[in-house]
Amino acid sequence: MSVLIDTSVWIDYFRHGNDALVTLIEQDFALIHPMVILEIACGTPPAPRLKTLRNLGFLEFCNQASMREVTTFIEHEKLYGLGCGLVDMTLLASTLITPDTELWTLDKRLADLAKRFGVAHR
């Protein structure tokens, strides 16, 4: 089982560490999405900044839902007005189209949606 790691988990890891995340990385089960890397790039990842961003890019990428797929997903499942934005919905849709993948997030609203679709990591 692979796990798409949300930005919230990475930020918590950068601040406090997380043995469970390290284990997923060591076992090659941790997946990344380009939007997560970009969200982290908008903030202040650990120094050296460029090395941190480059290292994230070495992780395996999940399948990436297109904007059309995300829009259709939002409309079909009536996911509007729930407090989740573009990146959240894109990560959820991408998780759903990546076989045997769960989504790990610390964001309560996104976690609730991941549970609703049966893809929440623990």
From TrEMBL:
Identification of the protein by name: Ribonuclease VapC32
Entry GO MF terms: hydrolase activity
Alphabetized InterPro entries for the sequence: PIN-like_dom_sf
Its EC number(s): 3.1.-.-
EC category: hydrolase
Keywords for the protein's UniProt record, in alphabetical order: Hydrolase
Lineage: Bacteria, Pseudomonadati, Pseudomonadota, Betaproteobacteria, Burkholderiales
